[in-house]
Amino acid sequence: MKAVYGEMCLDVSTVRRWTRRSREENPSESTVHDQARTGRPLSASDSKHQSRVDQLIRENRCVKQIDISIEIGISQERVHHIITNLLGYRKDSAR
How is the chain split into domains, by residue range? Predict the structure, then answer.
């Protein structure tokens, strides 16, 4: 590593010491694989959000994307993706 990063990189003995200490203190947490956790959903374009966007549009055809995103709690970009790509809606001229 020192050949690539120079003198500013960690020494191998330091990394080994950290690894050993981590395994001794928390043997159950020594895995390197991701574990299931709560938090942000993987996708905001699931069927629940699609049906809610569709419902809001059918209730008020003049609703804005920003209002839908605030109401549902997802980004405006995801709302636009749901409307145009998943639901197949497009804007027609009002004239």
Answer: 47-86
